[in-house]
Amino acid sequence: MASGALRRAVRKERNAEQLAERKRACMHALLNRPWVTKEDDPDLYFAIKDHYEELRDWLMDKAGFPLIVTRSMAKLDKTPVKAFPWMGFAEFRETSDYVFFTYGLWYLEGKTELDQFLLSDIVEEVREQMLGAGLEADWRNYYHRLSMARALKKLRSLGVLYSVDGDESFWAQDAERNALYECSPLARYVLRRFPRDLTECSTLEELTDPIPYADTQDGQSMRRRHRVYRRLLLEPVVTDRQWDEEDLNYVLWQRRAIIDQLEKTFGWVGRRYREGLLFFHPELTGEGELFPTLSAASDLALLAAGEIRKQLAEGGGLYTEDNGTIRLTRAEMETIMYRLQSRHKEYWSKELRESASQELAELCMNHLAEWGLGEWESEASFLVSPVLGRWNADYANSDFDA
After folding, report:
1. Are residues 251 and 300 in the same domain?
2. How many CB atoms lie within 10 A of CB 244?
3. Which backbone phi and psi does 73 adopt, to 5 degrees?
4. Which domain of life does this protein belong to (predicted)?
5. What is the DSSP string of 246-296?
6. Last residue of a domain, which of 76, 96, 123?
């Protein structure tokens, strides 16, 4: 009997852990994907539907993120507290790409599911609508066509637009070419829902709240909690100096509850360090992109962390500011890259070996800025976050003193 009870207890515990893991998988997918569709990932879609109420309640209570589930997809409406360049579409190169993308959505909202239309139809209506708003769209201009083609390609990659025959790349090269598209039911869910009429807003700051808040103490407490969780969920790292005083007090007083919530819900490991409350993904892979990435820029960042630590220990001219940051000029970062290149180039790719120290420094600093591990103070000055000091790297069997 005792043996049977033990087996049942073990089985119950295993089932509970599998259920918790399933919910975490749902949360990670909602947080990191534009949406989860029934067609592309039916198992995950139905898992989200099965746990809809629990997921919805947690996301709304902690972050103010509405969870939308339809007959074909599940989407988390994510609103960042602060917008960063890396939150945009990596494929887009010009501001006009976003303009054409938005007007493409405007056109698609007038279509019903499975409506078919020609590329010439959408570009002509977009052009007329933009001209009416005082914006330029000239399809005789090759660069305008390229920009519109990138917007259409992104709509297709998101699954908002289906290509039936041909595609926009041929039209970008030759304005006389055409293509046939079909509208997806996802088109009206790309833009997030706003808590108020956009015509009532005059600044971007008025669009930052994901839901309306009551002008009461409880309403403001909810807004503060949502701000904190939204930043922790969407930004790679937030140090103490990056919080305003009100939010920092919440983080300090509620750190144990925050750590417990994010560990239970996402499996993240939270630690309180001198520079702030930091979270790490315990696995080497995940739904979201993790630092360090597989790119060469992450290798440079980790090597730079070790070199900076070495120079600080040796009194090499670098020093730590009162807030823990380290100020580097472009020239100082270029010198660090030059030393690393001279020391480790045999381990590097041909591209990195042949890159100038200025190019390597730019690549490294931009990568650090994207991951919240540094920031540009001015055109010539870069602040390295103390969080970078949590990493170090070197090549095995390399001559560190070379």
Report:
1. no
2. 9
3. -160, 165
4. Bacteria
5. HHHHHHHHSHHHHHHHHHHHH-PEEEEETTEEEEE-SSS--SS--SS-SSH
6. 76
Same domain, 257 and 309: no
Tell me the pLDDT tens digit for each residue of 16-38.
889 999 999 999 999 999 999 99
DSSP assigned state of 85 = G
Report pLDDT for 2: 59
- Please give the order of strands across the beta sheet that includes 67-69: 36-37, 73-76, 67-69
Q: What's the Cα-to-Cα distance from 151 to each of 172, 176, 180, rounded to whole Å?
A: 12, 19, 16
* Total domains, the chain: 4
DSSP 320: B
Give, as one character, the DSSP assignment of residue 65. P
253 in the same domain as 220: yes
Beta-strand pair 161-165/116-118:
unpaired
* CA nearest neighbour of 107 among 132, 124, 88: 124
Most confident of 91-105, 309-323, 368-382: 91-105
Q: Check whether 109 has a pLDDT greater than 80.
A: yes
Q: Domain of 97: which CATH number?
A: 1.10.10
- Determine, yes or no, domain membership for 81: no
Tell me, yes or no, whether 397 lies in a domain.
no
Asked if residue 292 has a cis previous peptide bond (ω within 30° of 0), the answer is yes
The domain boundary residue, chosen from 158, 189, 220: 189
Q: CA neighbours within 13 Å on the CB side: how many for 161? A: 28
- Residue span of the structural domain in which 260 resides: 200-280
The rounded percent of the chain whose pLDDT value lies above 70 is 95
Asked whether the beta carbons of 276 and 386 are under 8 A apart, the reply is no
Instruction: List all residues 6 or more positions away from 202 whose beta carbon is below 8 Å from its beta carbon.
Output: none
Closest to 103 (Cα-Cα) out of 140, 132, 143: 132
Q: In the block, which residue shows the tokens 């090759």?
A: 142
H helix or E strand, kind and range, residue 327: strand 326-329
Number of H helices, E strands in the chain: 14, 11
Residue 195 lies in a domain: no
pLDDT at 141 over 60: yes
